[in-house]
Amino acid sequence: MSSVIPEFIVDKNEDRCIKCKVCVRQCSEEVFKYFEEFDLIRIYNDKCVGCHRCEMMCPTDALTITKNNALYKENFHWSSYTINSIKKQAETGGMILTGSGNDKAYVSYWDRMLLDASQVTNPPIDPLREPMELRTYLGKKPDRITLKEENGEVSLETKLSPQIKLETPIMFSAMSYGSISLNACESLASAASKLGTFYNTGEGGLHKKLYKYGKNTIGQIASGRFGVDTDYLDTCAAIEIKIGQGAKPGIGGHLPGEKVTVEISETRMIPSGTDAISPAPHHDIYSIEDLKQLISLIKEATNYEKPVFVKIAAVHNSAAIASGIVRAGADVIVIDGFRGGTGAAPSVIRDNTGIPIEVALAVIDQRLRDESIRNEVSIVAAGGIRSSADAVKAMALGADAVYIATAALIAMGCTLCQKCYKGKCNWGLTTQDPVLTRRLNPELGSQRLTNLVNSWNLEIKEILGSMGINAIEALRGNRLRLRGVGLTELESKILGIEHAGM
Amino acid sequence: MKRRIICNEDFCIGCRLCEVHCNVKHSKSRDIILAYKYEKEKEPSRMTFEQKEQVCGSIVCMNCKDPLCIKACSMGAIKIEDGTVIIDTDRCVGCWMCVMVCPFGAIKRGDKKAFKCDHCHDEEVPICVLNCPNKALMYEAD
Fold first, then answer.
1. What is the value of ipTM here, to two decimals?
2. Which of A23, A438, A444, A446 to mutate to test the interface with B (most CBs of B within 10 A)?
3. Sequence ranges of chain B with CATH classification 3.30.70.20
4. By CB distance 3.0 to 4.6 Å, which of A10, A20, A129, B12 could disulfide with B57?
5. Is the Cβ–Cβ distance between A51 and A414 less than 8 Å?
6. pTM for the full predicted model
7. Which residues of B touch A22 (CB under 8 A)?
């Protein structure tokens, strides 16, 4: 007998229930069971993970999923979550696993920053009447440029480092085929190509079906080196070396053998049915010099035509690490904050490791400026970007672009039940079960992602207009357009922004 | 105008909401709760839902160019009107020959009369297509 009290209560209103059994058919956790003999839908609360699929599919709104408020006596120090965790561990002897990003009540600095707007002396611009530029180039920028003039035509003499062109400073962050379904990957890829931006393969390799989106693909190379070959390097528009992930800094990845289907095994280039283990470190990277070797190797292999990204989790001494990464020759640095998501991580790591992206971004941008190497690298902020406002604030703090993944999953149906690691995702996202993966029609998924980013683009243009600027370039690293509210002097100093009223 | 409802079984999630909405649309009250819980006269759904292991999908009348049901009907109760196959219930005697010959299993036995999908001729888009949560049901008109 389990001593864990159910987290949710599934309430069915009998006056509204028409016994169509949609709930029975849709719940992959088998919360509902129909007994024909008694014409009864029996509900098992203990199996409910709170994903709300049944609630949304029920045609008569007969179902309500509520939090079990009777969950243990209220205790400020010993929360119901803590008590249940201890009980689960006492029963199983294992680590508590979880999915998606850190959900604990740490401060969100995005919510402590306000944007500036123009009044009287510096007039705002109407984005509906005047063009607004969101185009962004990621890659190393030269110290200076020289121009040459021939027969009255001016051209660039300086040879530029490889750049990738984004029509919007929003990209889709790394999620591997394996952690998410192929339909989800295809939705992201096709949305990225429609939007003129990029998505990231995660460490899942590139499925044959997705090669056609190569121009909008960032190929990741992580510690397991899954799916990396010449075709992969040739097809992707940029290559990302993943050192760490915001949700689980210092922790590797583990795709259990039962999820490694034939197609995944072909894409990852490993035997089917075997565990795909990404080690915690890259076993050939133990120093900045080692990282430099891998970056050089990739550049050599791709004929110096593709920018190389290096992704690190935001941790205590990120600024010094970032400086090393620039000196190792990376074209783009990706910083993943502690709110970033994951397909599976030990709860204790996800909830207690890393630092906020706002802080890491501010200190890295400042450090690189102080060392006069900021132009040698573009910075991408990732991990918990919830809205266009967060994205704009990130850019004002110094980011060149942002990565979104949790927001993208939500657009495709995710309700953040945090059970990605179970492989039974009711929305067909984080699962490989063929019955469940078909719940995401890539055509619909891609449309919803495109809508999301387009609406954020509109909002970003509106914000820029209100600030009286007509290009995202003019906002980048412009911390004067930010003000803090409710920040201590030290917090303001670290973020490099003035407090409201200053 | 020929109307066709096609199911892409790659994306049919087997929720059978198409059946539910079809039933509501063809009920007296057109209200989901009244139709299911209070109305006495109920017909089986016009959709034929089929499932074999992991593959499933809904099939309805395909409005064949040269329908076998018309040939099989001894009463001349079935005709094509504006591209849509229609059963004249006044003429139907319930011999079920149309049910026997339909290659899609799309004609159903009602109370002594055959009936089938009417492609919601009074709606712009058939109700099942409109309510398919994963766009597995697609609608073509030409």
1. 0.89
2. A438
3. 1-60+118-142, 64-116
4. B12
5. no
6. 0.94
7. 15-17, 20
